[in-house]
Design goal:
The protein is α+β, with helices and mostly antiparallel strands. It has three domains: 53 residues, no CATH class; 25 residues, no CATH class; 82 residues, no CATH class. 32% of the residues lie in helices and 26% in strands. The strands form two sheets. It has a five-stranded antiparallel beta sheet. The protein has a three-stranded antiparallel beta sheet with strand order 1-2-3, with helices on one face.
Amino acid sequence: MERLTERYTPELVYLIGNGQTYNTRSRSKMAKALDRLAAYEDTGLTPEEARCFGRLVRGERMVTEEDLMASGVSPAEIQRLMDIVTAEAEGRLLVLPCKVGDTVYRLNRTPYGKRFMDAYPELEVYAYQVTTIYGEKPGLILFAHRLLNGSITTSYVTFSGEDFGKTVFLTREEAEAALRFVMRG
């Protein structure tokens, strides 16, 4: 990691690229901030290492590879966990709200193009079976067929992953609670 500061003496910090030297004993906010930055840079830690060290200092539990192996987790499983953590850190991890085959519950919109919020009396909870999930962050799209008496019908809907918790729910109870909330206004 390229340094932003250089410490000449315990009291003098040079800001690289700025050409100015600051006395850390002054009351200047800039000098105090540079002193703190120089102190961090003097550790040689990366930001992630500093965060991990901070968690240790605060007494937060961190699971180590040795902890995992002692609890019976195989090296292949540890590698898989590390791959998932890396993918999340790099923004490549997508957590799906459900899987294909799951039943989800949707507040049914009214027919004839009425606005959703104008149609309280016509709202109902319909069950759908998710048949396809496609897309990528943030545009996840789900395709689902309506369930009627436990059987899939030809009627289908598409909705986005962002609809979960708003108009699409994982349980009938959640959907009915949302319906009661909307009906109350």
